Task: inverse folding
């Protein structure tokens, strides 16, 4: 590894809106900044929920269609159980509790951290139009709504990571 | 592992170049460690972070997370990155004589 070129810049694309889809991207972006690596985060499709003011702190874990789900005791959760009303909220609460213990902040605070650390926050123009969203729907940390072309321009020299 | 003379005393360094034992650190070593990290002068604001991190480390045996530092040391995220550019938590830990932080946040 020592002879390899270190990573200098990353662009992380967050395309899904489940809690378990958004956090990995945010942790990677923040972690990049902590290592002195340039980082931008590009939110698209349902990932946009993570930067919409009224939704960002209400994201939930997807319990349906998630074969990795387990009960706290480690037992596999049958897929059907994921459909039980309130299951998603329950699992989300459990996960948030664990994250809080690791000092992982809520989404809104995490975005503030990344933005203050110099990370760029961008939203996908096509999705904003498709979902009829407005710039005022977004959190203050949003730098810009950009096209896919602008996304590639901004990503010059970066490794692009799609999540 | 290597031994190095810093501020007139012999200190042991780990493989990451951090002090092996945080107790071998003193305030005269900090500026020398800072120079290695490209920081020429330590201001009061640098010291606010370093002292906070050492205090936390002493109490918990782990370096505080980024979130804890920026919420409780009196130095916010933006300023932290300005004071210790390119890797604030790691650099501040090194200058403060602490091992490389192990957390992801």
Result:
């Amino acid at each position: 590894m020592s002879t390899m070129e270190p990573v200098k810049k990353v662009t992380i694309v967050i395309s899904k809106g489940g809690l378990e889809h958004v956090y990995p991207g945010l942790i990677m972006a923040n972690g990049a900044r902590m290592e002195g690596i340039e980082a931008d985060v590009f939110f698209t499709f349902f990932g946009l929920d993570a930067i919409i003011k009224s939704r960002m702190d209400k994201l939930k874990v997807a319990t349906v269609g998630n074969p990795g789900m387990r009960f706290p005791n480690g037992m596999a959760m049958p897929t059907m159980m994921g459909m039980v009303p309130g299951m998603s909220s329950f699992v989300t609460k459990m996960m948030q509790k664990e994250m809080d213990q690791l000092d992982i902040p809520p989404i809104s605070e995490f975005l503030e951290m990344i933005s203050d650390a110099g990370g760029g926050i961008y939203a996908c123009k096509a999705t904003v139009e498709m979902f009829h969203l407005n710039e005022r729907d977004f959190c203050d940390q949003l730098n810009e709504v950009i096209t896919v072309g602008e996304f590639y321009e901004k990503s010059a020299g970066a490794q692009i990571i799609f999540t | 592992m290597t031994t190095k003379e810093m501020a007139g005393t012999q200190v042991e360094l780990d493989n990451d170049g951090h002090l092996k034992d945080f107790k071998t650190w003193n305030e005269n070593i900090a500026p020398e460690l800072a120079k290695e990290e490209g920081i020429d002068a330590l201001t009061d604001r640098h010291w606010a972070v370093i002292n906070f991190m050492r205090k936390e480390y002493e109490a918990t045996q782990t370096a505080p997370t980024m979130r804890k530092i920026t919420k409780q040391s009196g130095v916010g995220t933006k300023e932290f990155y300005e004071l210790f550019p390119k890797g604030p938590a790691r650099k501040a830990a090194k200058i403060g004589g602490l091992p490389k932080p192990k957390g992801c946040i």
Q: What stands out?
A: The beta strands of chain B are 2-6, 9-13. Chain B has five helices and two strands. Helices of chain B lie at 29-36, 44-60, 66-72, 77-83, 88-95. Chain B touches chain A at residues 65-68, 70, 76-78, 81, 85-90, 103-105 (CB under 8 Å).
